[in-house]
Sequence to fold (395 residues):
Amino acid sequence: NTPRSVARGATAWCNVQFNPDTVETMPNVREVPVVLLGCGLVGKAVLRMISRVNGAAVPNVKFSVKAIAESDALVACATGLDIESVLKHKEEAGRLKTFKSNGVTVIPVPDSLVDDGQMVDVVDASKSILIDCTAASTTISHLKTWVAAGGAVALANKKPLSGPGDDFDFLVGSNGDTCGYESTVGAGTPFVAAVRRLVAVNDNVHRVMGAMSGTLGFLMAGLQKGEQPWGALVNSAHELGYTEPDPRDDLSGTDVARKALILARTLGWKFEMGQIKVEALFPPEMSELSVAEFKQAVHSLDSTMQARRDAAAAKGCVLRYVANCSVDALTVGVQEVAADSPLGLLSGPANMLVVTSDLYNDGPLVVQGAGAGDDVTAAGVVADMVQLALSARLA
Fold:
């Protein structure tokens, strides 16, 4: 049961640093214009990571943030926004519509992101990167416009790639130089990169299994320990901030299903969201309850979840919330896995991908690491940006 290869989710950064104001004087350093959609927790972490990369001796590119859009405003500066000033304003005032600085234009955009024409006017899309750190499905038009104009996109937002398959195909293309989307699946842990490398060598992938929700991993590990009943575990996770404001957003399994769909499409498997069998961890009648009512009602599932845990233990197994992907079907739900298997040994909120293929047949390829967190998600986005910036498309 020992996996042949285990890749840990870590990003190595060069420790050699210098004043970013002198980057332009360094040989072979090229400025890459950037536009950011969404400046919440992940968006701000991306800005901090861009500053970090701009202050390093590698990778010979400097990202210049020309514009940042929120739902109610876009701020733009032809010479590049000062990241530290933006971050300071966000901490003090919250919204970019009140941001003021020399050379900065603020465009009010009531109730929606700025339209495609204005977005493209902000910067020459053909040599730039559009970053999507929103949680909106409506950004797909902006992303497609950017790629069509010759630019590239980097995503933390899963929704544009888990909508219609044609949208995925258009954005990702065939050369790998139009769209970076590592953070849509495993935050900074290289799940997408691992799968893409197998595709690159024409490996025949038989099956992909993934525990791809830190929240559900936390709950499954707690259930296994048996120190709290299911309802108490769910409520504790909610009160600790481990779940979404409405815990059903995690317990529905939809987020894991989106990740499974993106991985399947990366492998060339043609699925749509409606074809995925998804097990929610609450019955349909609990869908219409308020959050407070749900937190009371979830205790009614205690005996059911304990019985499932005990039945698995009797077989030498544990329960994990798993995405199962093959060329024939995608399923997402609670699954019994051997206690001494890679997924069985997984504990807490860590995420894991287990891939079986022609190359990894005797022992699976196992990729493990943090599957959530603003900083690791931002690292995945910016690492994708570096790859895109160094591609021939943006040269």
In short: The first helix runs from residue 41 to 54. The chain has 14 helices and 14 strands. The radius of gyration is 22 Å. Residues 229 and 302 are 6 Å apart (CA to CA).
